[in-house]
């Protein structure tokens, strides 16, 4: 669907009346609405994606499509309705027909969303496992190259993995100021469970007449990525968009106008605003506001195009560097249960020893929930501490051997 919009009302309120650090959810809902990413719809939990948001999603789609084509993945379109709901319910944790989202969050957890979902089939387990990690790396590159957001790659726990799969991997985004974990994408090894359920097989070339079930993988990234972008970089003045994702990278504000245009483009997250008046044209010196740094600088008009390109690349790079440092600084190692509880109450992100057993994870969540703590195991990072011998599982009731360190924190999805 396409749309065009005419003149805007200049007296529209552009300011946010809630701070990110006071009421995160209220701030977020105001920001995605006032920055014109979405409009509300007359059905709760459904939203209209406006051109600003859809342009960002199209950039992500283009980047993904190019990477997928390089490795032979092709696009298809499937019908909306599934004729085998009974089979799907047994295998997909998120397809219960009676499920209802009680507290929808735009982009993050809504009742309808845009999703890239891919499947690949192989004749052997080794190739299918390689595909899982290859797709996870593509998603990792999307976030680092386009979004300028660092992620944590890891394996999902037995409780967190896709139901019916061999194993699931994911990348987590951490919003450090509020200690929130967001699953940004996933790549799953389905094994042969689904191919057996739906009779998907191939003729074994080594044994004519013999059929074997294929090995399947599943990989997904959704429009939740835009919500993660807003939460990661947004501030009390509006969006902050990385140059590679911004629908508009530079805007020109004529000197002498009121602050409406400047505030409007700041709210929209445009990386650079140029302020140009007659005096600037005469002096050949152009002032500009840089959204991410929240500071002003001056460029020479004679080299403006080339200097802007250099500056945009620097902004993109600095956004990733700064957020990477924030991510590394916000993760704490915790070995003591009482400290574990107190830190999670303050929305910390913790790396703690864990045995890996399903019942132990369920026990941890029950104990946390009993104290009103909305935290859980986010994933098991691939990068592990070098030595965890002699460490005890963070669950004080557990006597099992520690297998790895797991990431725990608050999750809103």
* Class by SSE composition: alpha+beta
The 3D shape can be described as globular
User: What percent of residues are in strands?
Assistant: 15-25%
N-end to C-end Cα span: 28 Å
Order of helices and strands: HEEHHEHEEEHEEEHEHEHEEHEHEHEE
Mean pLDDT: 89
- Give helix % range: 25-40%
Biggest pleated-sheet summary? 5 strands, mixed, barrel
- Total helices: the number is 11
Strand order of the largest sheet: 4-5-6-17-16
Nearest-angstrom radius of gyration? 24 Å
The low-pLDDT segments are 4-11
Number of strands: 17
Task: Please characterize this protein's 3D structure.
This protein is an alpha+beta fold and 413 residues long. Helix content is 34%, strand content 24%. The protein contains eleven helices and 17 strands. It has helices spanning 24-34, 51-70, 85-91, 125-147, 193-197, 224-233, 260-268, 278-283, 304-330, 337-345, 358-370; strands at 38-40, 47-49, 115-122, 152-155, 167-175, 180-191, 201-203, 211-213, 215-222, 250-254, 272-276, 285-290, 295-300, 331-333, 349-354, 375-381, 404-411. Strands 4-5-6-17-16 form a five-stranded mixed β-barrel. It has a four-stranded mixed β-sheet with strand order 10-11-12-13, with helices on both faces. A hairpin with a 7-residue loop joins strand 7 and strand 8 (211-213). Helix 2 (51-70) packs antiparallel against helix 4 (125-147). The longest helix is centred in the C-terminal third of the chain and has 27 residues, at 304-330. The radius of gyration is 24 Å and the shape is globular. The protein starts with 23 loop residues before the first helix and ends with a strand. 33% of the residues are buried. The model is unreliable at 4-11 (pLDDT under 50).
